[in-house]
Amino acid sequence: MVTDAAWKPRLIAVDVDGTLLDPDTQQISEVVKAAVHRAIEAGSQVVVATGRAMLGTVGILDALELTSGFALCSNGAVLMDVAAREPLSVATFDSAQVLAELAIRLPGASFAAEQIGVGNLVTTKFQEHELHGPQQLASLDELVGEPVPRLIAHWVDHEPAEVFEALGDLDLPSCTITLDHYEPLVTVVPEGVTKGSALEKLRAELGIASEDTFAAGDGDNDIQMLRWAAHGVAMGQAPEEVRAAADEVTGPVSEDGLAVVLDRWFR
Asked: What are the pLDDT digits (tens) for 71-80?
C-alpha cells in the first residue's frame, strides 16, 4: 500500500464491469469518465483490463473516448492497441482437456470459445450481456478444433456457489481457471495468464516502476491484478475475497467509487 502523500500512479489499470461500467445502468458515468481523462492528461497510462473479449471491449473504449494506449482483454490473454483497435499479442491454449472435465463436472453447461475479432463459437446461445459479439453454434468437437485465448462455461440455472463446489479442487495443466461470485460462469485462459501477469509484462515494456502502479476492480478475475499493483483498490460492492486482496476499498460503482479514489491524485 502506498502511503506517500506526494505519490501519483503512472500506470493505472481499471476493470470494466463493476468498476468503470455500472452493471445496473450499463453506463459509464460522466464523473468516472472525467476522472479517467484527468489521469491521462496528467501523463498517466490508463489501461482497461477486462475479462471481456476484444469485441466487447471496443464499445467501452468508445464510451470512454480513449484513442491511444493499451487494453488487456480476455483476462490478459489479448493485448490490444487502442488506437488501431487491433490485437498486438494473443496467448492461446488447447482447451480439449479442460472442456471435457468441465462438461463432466457441470452437466448441461453452455460453452463458448473465443475467436479473436470475430466472435465466439457456442454450444448454445448466451445472453448478450454474458458474451459480447456474434455467436455461432458449434459442437464440442468444433470448439476444441484449434487453440483459443478464452473458454467460457455458463452453468445455467445454477448458483455461483454450486460452481465453486463443483470446481473447487479442479487444477489442470495448460490453463488458468477463474470462477465468478456474481454469476455461474467459469472463464479459462492460458496457463499463467491473469490480468496481473499481463500488466506486469506491459509495465516492464513501458519502463514504469513497479511502485508507480495502481489497479481497481471488483471481481475474482481482478484479485491477481490488485495484488500486483503498488496500490490496489476494490470496489465497494466487491465480495470479501476481492476486498482482502486490495489495499483499500472505495465506494461501489453506483456511487462512482473509481472517480472518488482517482480524484485523490488527479483533481
From this structure: 999 999 999 9
